[in-house]
Structure formats: structure tokens, C-alpha cells
Amino acid sequence: MPQQRKVIISDNDPAFLAACEQSFQLLGFQTVVVPKHGLMLWDAIDQEQPDAVICNLFMPYCDVVHILEHRSNERTVPLWIALCTFDHEKLFERFFATGGTYVFVKPFEPSILAERIANYFTRMEQQSNLRRLPEKSCSFDLEKATAELLKTIGVPAHLTGYYYIKTGISLLFHNEARFSHSTKGLYQAIAGEVRSTYACVERNIRTAVEAAFDRGDLQLLESFFGSSVNRKSGKPNNIQFIATLYETLLWKQAANG
Predict the structure, then answer these.
(1) Are residues 84 and 174 both part of a single domain?
(2) Please, what is the average pLDDT of the chain?
(3) What pTM was computed for the model?
């Protein structure tokens, strides 16, 4: 990696911590280990200023959602990854709504976690480099490409959520850094653009995602969205859905540039 990233790993399982440390260090990360304790994690974040934080969804004294809610306005916000021992979509959506990025349900392979985080930072660096390039004319039409992609995966164009998804993608292309760590911010920005509310935006996008997975080609959808498909619901959550479309369109834009 071009620069060494720092990651805080918070847990009480020595074997798990050792495996995570090894996996991240092999990929060039600096690791800081913290016990599974909300207040100790809070202090470690202040002291270490990490690029990523990996911690349990629930901890003594304060859970991860509480920490996110009280640190969301800081200038530098790390990437947040929550660990959990059970699958609970509503709980996960609350974590995502407060700024979380990934949830890993134990048990899992630490090397997969490390690779996922390394790939995330690599994509962010590539996008940053693309934004620094001089503007030049190209044949990429974001509006048309988004419509074609939504049609391919089976999102009905008559649904309000279809329009909200297109708006969200357009906002991400305009200023991705503004929303990279805050799903709540993206929902609010969409609501502002379409003169609606946060709750209506979330609900209508969810309806559009459900429609795609109810009516679309499941084999195509599973290959397209991969591991973001929830095992119980059989579909990704709203933000994972939009993020996958956004990344796909980014690569299409680069290819047409």
C-alpha cells in the first residue's frame, strides 16, 4: 500500500486478535489491540487516530452505535467495522445508519477481513487519484449508464425508490468523500434533493431493492452483489446495494475515460 494505515482491533479473544494482527500486518497495516471495552476503545481512538476501527457491536459501558453517534461530527472519521455473534438485519441497519461500513458475523476468517479493508482503502486511493487528473471529455453518460444498470438488475423504473437510487448515485459521483462513512448523510442528502424525508427515502429505496430481488434474475443478482447478500433476507441492505452500483459505475467511467 502507498502509505501505512493504522487499524484498531478490539476484542477479548487472544487467538482471534493474534490472527487479525498477523493478517493485517502482512498487508502493511499498523495494528493496535484494545480490550473489548467501550471506554478504552474511545480513548484509544483519541490517542491513535486510526484509519479503521474493528470492534464488537456490543461492549461494556457503551456500544459501537453510541460511539458513532457521539463522534460523527469529527473532522476525521475512521472506517468502522462491527463484529457480532449473530445475524440481525435491523440491528445492522442501525449500525450502518450511524456511519458503519461493514459487519462481520463470527466466526469468520481474519484474512478475509484484512483483505476487505485493504481493498476498500485501495479503491479510495484510486478514486482520489482519478479526481486529481485533469478534466477531459469522455463518452461516459452517468444518467444513461445508471438507468441501464438498474434495468439490467431488474429495478422497476416506475418505483419512487428507482429515482432515489439514481439521485444517491449522482450525489456520490459529485462528492463521494462527503458520504463515504455516513449512510445517514447520504439519505438526508437524497431527501433534500427530492424534497422528502429520511424515512421515506430509506423505505422507498428498500422497496426498490426488494422488487429487484423478487422479480429479477436471482443468479445474476447473486453474482453481481456477492457477499453483500444477507443470508436471511436474501438481499443486500440499501447502502450495500447503492455502494455496489456506485463502484460498478466508477469502473465504467474509468473505462470510458
Answers:
(1) no
(2) 81
(3) 0.56
